[in-house]
From TrEMBL:
Residue span(s) of domain START: 24-179
Domain of life, source organism: Eukaryota
Predominant cellular place of this UniProt entry's protein: other
GO BP of this protein: lipid transport
Lineage: Eukaryota, Metazoa, Chordata, Craniata, Vertebrata
The species this protein was found in: Pampusana beccarii
One CC-aspect GO term: cytosol
PANTHER family documented for this protein: PHOSPHATIDYLCHOLINE TRANSFER PROTEIN, START DOMAIN-CONTAINING PROTEIN 10
Annotated protein name in UniProt: START domain-containing protein 10
Length: 179
């Protein structure tokens, strides 16, 4: 999915590649591991600060379907994400993909960021994938009060590990732009 020159709705190969990258540890450097939380970094361009990050966390009292619903519900996100400024759907493309807007607060002195993404999701039994990448939309050009970030590849793999437990892997390669 990363490196595309055109807008394409992810297919089974894209979801499979995303899952494989979430599950792989090859080429990743483990930078933190404690209390059921692990963080890896993958430097792609050593001369630049743009790299990938992967976080995995065990959720012992949360069913996979509940976590998927929480992450997938943009209205509910406004309640649990204290950094959200604004988020909304721009339009539905297929039964499992849409284009959306998300703006978030950054710590001072940084300017707040926003992004337009093509978001796709795939429920697979007790496992779920939500992934996105940046797109442009003519009705939503960059705003003067924000810096338009670029999601090269971002998403979640939620794997059910029991009736009331799951593991979530967050994978992100984002260019925050700006200084």
């Amino acid at each position: 999915m990363s490196g595309r020159d055109s807008v394409q709705i992810p297919d089974d190969r894209d979801f499979g590649a995303f899952r494989a990258e979430c599950e792989s540890e090859r080429g990743w450097s483990l930078t933190y591991s404690k209390g059921g939380v692990a963080v890896w970094v993958q430097l792609l361009e050593p001369e630049r600060s743009l790299h990938k990050i992967k976080c995995r966390m065990e959720c012992k009292d949360v069913p996979a379907a509940t976590l998927y619903d929480v992450l997938h519900d943009i209205e509910y996100r406004k309640k649990w994400d204290s950094n959200v400024i604004e988020t909304f759907d721009i339009g539905r493309l297929t039964v499992n993909s849409d284009v959306g807007y998300y703006a978030w607060r950054c710590p001072k002195p940084l300017k707040n960021r926003d992004v337009i993404t093509l978001r796709s999701w795939l429920p697979m039994g007790t496992d779920y994938i939500i992934m996105n990448y940046s797109v442009k939309h003519p009705k939503y050009p960059p705003r003067k009060d924000m810096v338009r970030a670029v999601s090269i590849q971002t998403g979640y793999l939620i794997e059910g590990t029991g009736a009331n437990s799951c593991t979530i892997t967050y994978l992100a390669q984002v260019d925050p732009k700006g200084n």
